[in-house]
Write a structure and sequence with these properties.
The chain is α/β, with parallel strands linked by helices. The protein has helices spanning 24-38, 60-67, 84-98, 142-157, 161-175, 190-195, 223-227, 262-273, 290-300, 308-313, 330-333, 340-351, and strands at residues 6-13, 48-53, 74-79, 103-111, 198-200, 203-204, 213-222, 234-243, 282-284, 364-369, 374-381. 33% of the residues lie in helices and 19% in strands.
Length: 382
């Protein structure tokens, strides 16, 4: 039997805010309903549902019930952070390929500002297992762990705070063209970045992603079914999920805090999609912190290790540059929806629906999920 390709047929989001005024279940239903409607379908047409979360979002079956889905034929919940996006896409693809489901809605919902705030993640946890060596000494939250990567990159390659700041400034320029972004029309200069307070050295305020409330969703189905719906299908050409072979927990024991999972997975994803680096029209990189944009650019092969700071300074990741990055503004300047909002932007770019921020004739988009030792690389095309 020949495997049919899987495509994204619909996308949907809620408004991204700092105070949703509602529950995460309501946000999930809003986003799923919007994605289903965008595909030209109804809830009755959906027979699969999947999500990923860290105890801060409704379960798949709970959301299905709230939407009025009558006993989904396939559902799954992944307890995971940003890497969970790729896991959910791959799991949905496998479910569709196996016949377990025909049309799957994938969602992520969180009140990341008014509910569980990741800026406090781990701060009140018990110091069990390997965390007994980190939590009591202030190594508890995501910015503190990300700072280890930034410090190591600086120590080995001379990467500066100004180079990190240029990542934030570039992505903010994209957000300024995105009416849905929390930082729409709110500019950021390098001087403002440098004047912002230090969160965990060398990371400053604008090196860190937003805390936001909101939800996003996509509908996946076969390419042939998607072709009969409202939009030209955005096809999942290739993927790879996994981890770097040398990394293990605790994170402080990782032998290389400058190389991410991307270096070990990208060739597999490209081979499956039958594309090369030069075919990629834009990147939607998982960007909880500016340092991970630099490391991923290096790991993808756009420049050698230690050269990404200069690569960004030369304007190569700008909207009109060699490889535009995070045209929605990313997690740094659009919203933090654990990466699913970046996938929504990739779909809009490949549909050529992104308005002022549209990359001309975009044909292939690469999306990453996760930032450190594990995650996924997804390749989509028209």
């Amino acid at each position: 039997m020949t495997r049919e390709s899987v495509a994204i047929a619909g996308v949907g989001t809620t408004a991204y805010t700092r105070d949703s005024g509602t529950t995460v279940l309501d946000l999930a239903v809003q986003a799923c309903s919007a994605a289903i409607s965008d595909a030209g379908l109804t809830v009755e047409d959906i027979d699969g549902i999947v999500t990923y979360q860290l105890g801060d979002s409704p379960r798949a079956v709970e959301t299905a019930a709230a939407m009025g889905m009558d006993c989904p034929g396939w559902y799954s919940d992944f307890y995971d952070g940003g890497a969970g996006l790729a896991t959910c896409v791959v799991a949905s693809s496998m479910a569709i390929d196996s016949g377990a489901a025909k049309r799957v809605v994938l969602f992520r919902a969180l009140n990341g500002r008014t509910g569980q705030r990741f800026g406090r993640f781990g701060a009140e946890a018990s110091a069990a297992n390997w965390q007994q060596w980190t939590l009591p000494f202030g190594l508890a939250t995501p910015p503190q762990f990300a700072a280890l990567w930034a410090q190591r990159h600086a120590a080995l390659y001379g990467t500066t705070s100004q180079q990190l700041g240029l990542v934030a400034v570039t992505l903010r320029q994209n957000a300024n063209l995105n009416p849905q972004a929390l930082f729409y029309q709110r500019t950021l200069s390098l001087e403002e970045h440098q004047a912002s307070r230090v969160i965990s050295s060398p990371l400053r305020l604008f090196d860190c992603c937003l805390e936001s409330d909101g939800a996003a969703a996509v509908v996946l189905t076969t390419t042939s079914q998607a072709s009969d719906l409202k939009h030209e299908p955005v096809i999942l050409g290739g993927y790879a999920i996994g981890r770097t072979p040398a990394h293990s927990y605790p994170p402080i024991d990782w032998p290389d805090h400058t190389t991410t999972f991307v270096r070990h997975l990208v060739d597999r994803a490209f081979k499956m999609a039958n594309v090369e680096l030069g075919d990629v029209s834009f990147l939607e990189l998982y960007d909880p912190f500016t340092i991970f944009v630099l490391t991923q650019l290096e790991d993808l092969g756009y420049c050698e290790k230690g050269e990404a700071g200069a690569f960004v300074a030369d304007g190569h990741i700008a909207r009109t540059g060699r490889v535009p990055v995070n045209l929605n503004g990313g997690l740094l300047s659009e919203a933090y929806v654990h990466g699913l909002n970046n996938l929504v932007e990739a779909v809009r770019q490949l549909r050529h629906e992104a308005g002022e921020r549209q990359v001309p004739n975009a044909q292939v988009g690469l999306v990453t999920a996760g930032e450190g030792e594990r995650g996924g690389v997804l390749v989509f095309h028209r």
